[in-house]
Design brief:
3 helices, 96 residues, mainly alpha, 4% strand, 58% helix, rod-shaped, two-stranded antiparallel sheet
């Protein structure tokens, strides 16, 4: 979708803001072509993005916790490891 927006922006600049004339190239036509391709790319990207989100919603995968963990176990499962002890020179892991 971002590429589509970029193409539309560049096309609009070429179509409406650039006043230079190049003998072999009509910049207004190039700008119009870029705008059309950018709009098509944006629409296709938005449609595919919506389709993927709908598929994930149907499966229930999006941002869900592992099914075998309860909420408090889920938090413990991803907790930080215990801090390391030090004698000032180097770190020594704590024994469990």
């Amino acid at each position: 979708m971002g590429t589509g927006l970029l193409l539309v922006a560049v096309g609009a600049i070429l179509r409406f803001a650039v006043q230079d004339e190049i003998e072999a190239v009509n910049l207004e036509t190039v700008g119009l072509i870029l705008i059309i391709v950018g709009v098509v790319a944006f629409v296709v990207g938005a449609a595919l993005c919506g389709e993927v989100a709908e598929h994930e919603r149907e499966r229930g995968d999006a941002l869900s916790a592992p099914p075998d963990l309860l909420p408090h176990e889920f938090a413990d499962h991803f907790a930080r490891p215990p801090a390391a002890e030090t004698d000032g020179r180097y770190l020594r892991p704590r024994h469990m």
